[in-house]
């Protein structure tokens, strides 16, 4: 899952960075107004400012200073659009500087250069918008000032040439500021997008590293651990302090780090974790030119378990194929034994044919169990209401095993529902209850079957208990092993297949103990009967 970081915050439809630029533009305006005001008060005659109308210059500079202070202090309180606010400030700059320029002798005073600075700043702050409007406003103001000077003081008309050159500079500055602002906008957008992409990539990388099954650590040249994922702590069995070093994780790991020289490209070693005794594979390699070292921790037991699972899967497919190939000649042998029994022969030959038939049937059951084990991955779970299912199942089992119905004591809650493959559950219960019948006393109620749910954990438990001698102490650790049996005609795969089928259905089969007979329990996922009815299921 990619977590997209929030983009640059916006205020009134504009990025915060643009409003920050306007804030600095206000600071510049306040400084310029303060300089004008101080200069005219300290050097009222020698500075050349207000040389023609000192009173007008003083009042204009004072008003300009107050206006700059207002714009600076009330920027966050002004409720208007950015372009409108910027235009208001720039027009105030043009008016104030034009009046001060008029009071100081016109364009010859040099104050017109301040208008170029204002236009350039407005073009950059406004990101190139309305720059030509600002240039046109400054041009009109300067031309009006020069025209009024000609009418009032009889100034030389040739001064309009210098004013025209200045106005051309206004438009050139505006166009340059607009082009520069477009480039700045493109670079800012590119940087913002790259920042978002980088943040997304870092988020993805962090999530991947955090959820890795292998431990990952980054250690500096001094042995200080800069980063690590939770799996590293889990594999090493430690809780790292705030600023850990490798020794706080593992002393043996710190020794491997010291043995890993700067000239080595990679180091692979094995590490035994104290306490748990887990075997880890440690791989150290340099993380570029930064001097940091990447440390990978792999659980060798998990790798070996995966290898065993792969081998077992391949062995299961091979066994299923072999069992399928054995079935055909086995059927022929069984058929031939039946034909021999039908012929009128000596008692010894009839006994031999009976032995052949019994062992052929035993091999047939073994082949059937192996083939059924190979189909454990074909699971079609459905909600099964245990009360009705167990009633029907016990009736069928009693007919097949020639057992009276009184030998079973069934107690099933009305709402107990188990999510299970119906065929798998039938085979699991057949194995468990057939064993209970075989080892029980045969008295009424000798085999107890209890089914009840646990609403707090959404699980259901199914108990099968007999009143026989129970599981012997020697057999307790082997009852779920394949081909282990205490019955002369058994295949030794019944309980093993039952447990495998339970695991395939997200359930657990376990031997609880002797009460005094064997007590087995199935714990699986439950589903309330009301939900089944509302969903249109009919698990009964």
Structure summarized in a few sentences:
The chain is of the alpha+beta class. Helices cover 56% and strands 15% of the residues.
Folded structure, characterized:
- The chain is α+β, with helices and mostly antiparallel strands and 540 residues long.
- The chain folds into four domains: 10-191, no CATH class; 214-302, Beta-Lactamase (2-Layer Sandwich); 303-374, Signal transduction histidine kinase, dimerisation/phosphotransfer (DHp) domain (Helix Hairpins); 381-535, Histidine kinase-like ATPase, C-terminal domain (Heat Shock Protein 90, 2-Layer Sandwich), CATH 3.30.565.10.
- The protein is built from 15 helices and 14 strands.
- The strands form four sheets. Strands 4-3-7-6-5 form a five-stranded antiparallel β-sheet.
- A hairpin with a 5-residue loop joins strand 3 (215-219) and strand 4.
- Helix 3 (82-103) packs antiparallel against helix 4 and helix 10 packs antiparallel against helix 11 (347-374).
β-sheet strand percentage: 15-25%
Percent range for helical residues?
55-70%
**H/E topology pattern:** EEHHHHHHEEHHHEEEHHEHEEHEEHEEH
In whole angstroms, the N-to-C terminal distance is 41 Å
Number of domains: 4
Main sheet summary? 5 strands, antiparallel
Low-pLDDT parts are 1-13, 529-540
Structural class: alpha+beta
Radius of gyration: 46 Å
Oligomer description: single chain
The main sheet orders its strands as 4-3-7-6-5
Average residue pLDDT: 77
Number of helices: 15
Count of beta strands = 14
Query: Based on CA inertia axes, which overall geometry fits?
Result: elongated
């Amino acid at each position: 899952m990619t977590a997209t970081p929030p983009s640059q915050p916006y205020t009134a439809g504009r990025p915060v960075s643009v409003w920050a630029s306007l804030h600095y533009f206000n600071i510049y305006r306040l400084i310029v107004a303060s300089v004008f005001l101080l200069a005219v008060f300290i050097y009222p005659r020698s500075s050349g400012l207000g040389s023609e109308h000192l009173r007008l210059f003083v009042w204009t500079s004072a008003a300009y200073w107050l206006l700059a202070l207002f714009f600076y202090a009330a920027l966050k309180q002004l409720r208007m659009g950015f372009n409108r606010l910027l235009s208001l400030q720039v027009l105030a700059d043009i008016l104030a500087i034009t009046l001060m320029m008029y009071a100081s002798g016109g364009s010859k005073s040099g104050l017109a250069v301040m208008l170029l600075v204002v236009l350039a700043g407005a073009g950059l702050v406004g990101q190139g918008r309305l720059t030509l409007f600002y240039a046109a406003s400054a041009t009109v103001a300067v031309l009006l000032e020069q025209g009024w000077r000609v009418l009032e003081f009889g100034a030389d008309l040739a001064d309009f040439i210098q004013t025209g050159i200045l106005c051309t500079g206004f438009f050139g500055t505006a166009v340059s500021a607009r082009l520069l602002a477009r480039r700045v906008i493109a670079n800012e957008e590119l940087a913002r997008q790259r920042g978002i992409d980088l943040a997304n990539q870092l988020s993805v990388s962090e999530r991947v590293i955090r959820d890795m099954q292998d431990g990952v650590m980054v250690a500096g040249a001094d042995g200080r651990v800069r980063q690590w994922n939770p799996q590293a702590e889990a594999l090493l069995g430690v809780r790292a302090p705030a600023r850990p070093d490798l020794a706080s994780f593992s002393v043996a790991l710190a020794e491997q780090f010291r043995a890993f020289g700067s000239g080595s490209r990679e180091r692979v070693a094995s590490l035994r974790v104290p306490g748990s005794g887990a075997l880890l594979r440690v791989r150290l390699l340099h993380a570029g030119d930064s001097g940091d070292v990447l440390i990978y921790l792999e659980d060798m037991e998990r790798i070996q378990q995966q290898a065993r699972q792969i081998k077992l899967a391949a062995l299961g497919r091979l066994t299923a194929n072999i069992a399928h190939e054995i079935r055909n000649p086995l059927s022929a042998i069984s058929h031939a034994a039946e034909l021999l029994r039908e012929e009128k022969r000596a008692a010894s030959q009839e006994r031999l044919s009976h032995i052949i038939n019994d062992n052929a049937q035993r091999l047939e059951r073994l082949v059937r169990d192996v083939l059924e084990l190979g189909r454990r991955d074909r699971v079609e779970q459905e909600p099964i209401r245990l009360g009705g299912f167990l009633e029907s199942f016990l009736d069928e089992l009693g007919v097949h095993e020639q057992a009276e119905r009184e030998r079973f004591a069934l107690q099933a809650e009305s709402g107990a529902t188990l999510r299970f493959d119906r065929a798998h559950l039938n085979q699991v219960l057949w194995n468990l209850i057939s064993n209970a019948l075989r080892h029980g006393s045969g008295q009424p109620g000798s085999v107890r079957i209890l089914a009840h749910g646990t609403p707090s954990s959404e699980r259901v438990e199914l108990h099968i208990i007999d009143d026989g001698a129970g599981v012997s102490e020697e057999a307790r650790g082997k009852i779920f092993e394949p081909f282990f049996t205490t019955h002369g005609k058994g295949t030794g795969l019944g309980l093993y297949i039952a447990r495998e089928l339970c695991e395939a259905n997200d359930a657990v089969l376990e031997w609880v103990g002797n009460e005094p007979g064997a007590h087995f329990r199935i714990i699986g996922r439950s589903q309330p009967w009301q939900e089944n009815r509302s969903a249109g299921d009919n698990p009964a």
